[in-house]
Amino acid sequence: MREGVWSRELRLLNRDVDLYRRLHLSRLFEFFQEASIAHTQALGMGREKTLDRGLLWVVTRQQALIRRMPEYDEQLRLLTWPGVTMHLFFPRQYRLETPEGKTLVRGSALWMLVDRETRRFVFPENHGIVIPGLCTDEDLPLPPAPAALPTEEERSFTVPYSYVDMNGHMNNTRYFDLAEDCLGVAAEGRELIEAAVEYKNEARLGEELSLRWGREKERYYLTGTGNRPVFNLSLTYRA
Fold it and tell me: How far apart are CA 119 and CA 21, in angstroms?
């Protein structure tokens, strides 16, 4: 394993998969989130340097490219490594592979730090936050902002208690549950090949969002707005 790359072995359990025995999309991004936290802790930049000092890690964009979604009871290897810090942003790469090294899912994300009280971004160098970055030939490009599509459907959504994490807002992974429930495509058993999301502002407990969505061929686009724009999300399925 290349120096600077964090990895762990895992096996998919019942709670990780859907009715088709494939890994839940939200759980995939939970794996990415958990790997980010674990590696940051291993690099000496864990809660003692951040959370305990009133700093919160938040993700602003992320994406996943899926060759095949892993299935129930499958043994896997999860890898992550940081990219080179970009002023305020901490890029991070992910890979989910078989024990033999066959890549199933690749991902990338942009993280940043915000002040817990003001909810404004902070400059990491002012707080001694340093994450050594890698550049590899396996890196994905930085996650893009999903391209908008015309929207035909609309509904309202109120952020429930169960969707809110310890940062005090709707957890980034729950947006994928929300999208799949709205679109209905995952429930049909369609195979996802790409997911991308941009988080523009946080959604707090009890906040009501206006959701709008539409599609173009196999790509679906969902956007959410509360008191201000909250997120834009794109899911693409195999034809």
Answer: 38
- For 86-143, the pLDDT digits (tens) are 989 999 999 999 999 999 999 999 999 999 999 999 999 999 999 999 888 889 999 9
Edge-first strand listing for the sheet containing 208-216: 6-11, 75-82, 90-97, 103-115, 55-66, 192-199, 229-237, 219-225, 208-216, 153-158
Nearest to 109 by CA among 196, 5, 3: 196
- Which H or E run includes 27? helix 25-42
Please indicate, yes or no, whether the overall pTM of this predicted structure exceeds 0.90.
yes
Measure the CA–CA gap between 61 and 140, rounded to whole angstroms: 13
Q: Residue 52 and residue 32: Cα distance in Å, rounded?
A: 22
C-beta separation of 93 from 31 below 8 A: no
For the stretch 185-203, pLDDT in tens is: 999 999 999 999 999 999 9
The structural domains of the chain, ordered by start, are 6-127 (3.10.129.10), 153-237 (3.10.129.10)
